[in-house]
Amino acid sequence: MKPDGITDRPVPPWELPGAFRRDGEPHRADWLSRLAHAGYAACSWALVMAFFLGVATVGSGGNGEAAEVVAALVILFTLPGLLLGVLTLAQARRDLGLMLRGFMDPSGQDRTAIAARMGRDTVVFSLFIWAGAAFVVLLLSFAGK
Length: 145
Known about the structure:
The protein is mostly helical. The chain has helices at 29-59, 64-101, 109-144. The protein is rod-shaped.
């Protein structure tokens, strides 16, 4: 192979190093960024609701049945954030793969990578909230016996 991607065989311009197909898909970085922010906002809202529901439960006596209801509500509130995070992560990884192979406009690669990280963080955040809700239910169920 000669320098600068020049070869003896005819090569389409989009197969040269650093090039991409001009008829490829446009990037979806703006859409993925909005989706990631929505998932993160949904998880944050669920965390605030979990705090207020937990305070209300402890203030009213905090029996085990009330804690189970609160944990179920927290999981229910966190579910949209988890789904948006998984959706964002899956779509961003797909788009990054297409960008690396030259089938999608690479100009949005940085913002797509940021959206993928936000999607991953949203999934982890949701799972931590679920683990906290499960821990509180277990703690109150063992303390009640």
